[in-house]
Amino acid sequence: MSGEAVVARELTVAYEDFTAVVDATFSVRNGEALGIVGPNGSGKSTLLKTIAGLLKPSNGELVVLGEAPRRLAAGTIAYVPQVEAVDWSFPATVWDVVAMGRFARLRFWQHFGERDGDVVRNALALVGMSALSDRHIAHLSGGQQQRAFVARALAQEPKVLLLDEPTTGVDAATEDALGEIVRRLAADGMPILMATHDLDRVEQWFDRLLVLDRRVLALGTPREVVESGAYAAIREHTHTHGHLRHDHEPHLAHSAHPEIMGSG
Ligand SMILES: Nc1ncnc2c1ncn2[C@@H]1O[C@H](COP(=O)(O)OP(=O)(O)O)[C@@H](O)[C@H]1O
Ligand SMILES: [Mg+2]
Questions:
Q1: Nearest atom in ligand 1 to 195's CA
Q2: Of ligand 1's atoms, which has the minimum distance to the CA of residue 49?
Q3: Is the CB of residue 18 below 6 angstroms from any atom belonging to ligand 1?
């Protein structure tokens, strides 16, 4: 299999009325961490969901560990969704959440056994959450919630790890911890794909970077991508979409309605 864990060739993914990813060609090797950057709505989550097998490609080819994602054994691909996709009122402790990672792997006749408990404990330790294992997930900080969900993914003992903006809304210590986890897992051979808005960290975190805006705009080492200029364009774009949009709208209103200038 030549070490390629994920291979996409001219991959296109469409919702009913909108094509979110167009002709994406890239691959990720075992032990490689690929960062996916791009403005809001550029298709990052769509791409990860497709690799997770939650969405079907509408065109092109997608092979994960030599198979179509949906043909892989349950639990092979771990996918940590963006935080807003999680129901925090779900009555579960940290331990319960992480233990769920094991059930992806258990057969219906198997019970949660000693080894499963060990895997859960190890996953909790790896993300620094051992002391909080009895806490209800609703009573965690954003950073602790994100760590719990990463631990659940690791408890699956996956062969591919997909992370969707895990650093959004987390504290600096969690961000550093996640960075270390990504590097350690990659060093152990895990292929990792991670969407991120955190443009300042990409050189430390990732072996390669994919710049996405429905299409692949650039693909290479973080340095190559910075030098290509595509990254600068995205940085500008991401910033505009992320923070400056609120500053722009009043300006547009001002030009259309000069009478409101200076009123607030
Ligand atoms: N379920 C859906 N149905 C229709 N369009 C969707 C759906 N989910 C996302 N989209 C659209 O697809 C585009 C890409 O979304 P997404 O993959 O979430 O981007 P990103 O994660 O980069 O912000 C956006 O324009 C979004 O509005
Ligand atoms: Mg997204």
A1: 21
A2: 17
A3: yes
The ligand whose atoms approach the alpha carbon of 43 most closely is 1
pLDDT tens for residues 111-154? 888 999 999 999 999 999 999 999 999 899 989 999 999 999 99
The H or E element containing residue 165 is none
Looking at the CA of 81, name the nearest ligand. Answer: 2
- The residue among 194, 200, 190 whose CA lies nearest residue 178 is 194
- Which regions of the chain carry the CATH code 3.40.50.300? 1-71+161-231
Task: Please tell me whether residue 77 adopts helix, strand or coil conformation.
Answer: strand
Q: What is the SS3 string spanning 224-240?
A: HHHHHCHHHHHHHHHHH
170-200 burial, b for 16+ CB within 10 Å, e for fewer? Answer: beeebbebbbebbbebbeeebbbbbbbbbbe
Q: Which of 12, 13, 18 to mutate to test the pocket of ligand 1 (most atoms within 8 A of CB)?
A: 18
> Which ligand ends up closest to the CA of 39?
1
Q: What is the DSSP string of 24-43?
A: EEEEEETT-EEEEE--TTSS
To test the pocket of ligand 1, the residue of 12, 46, 49, 193 to mutate (highest count of ligand atoms within 8 Å of its CB) is: 46
DSSP state for residue 108 in the 8-state scheme? T
pLDDT per residue as tens digits for the range 55-110: 999 999 999 999 999 999 999 999 999 876 667 777 899 999 999 999 877 776 77
CATH class of the region 1-71+161-231: alpha beta
Atom of ligand 1 nearest to the CA of 214: 14
Is the pTM here over 0.85, yes or no?
yes
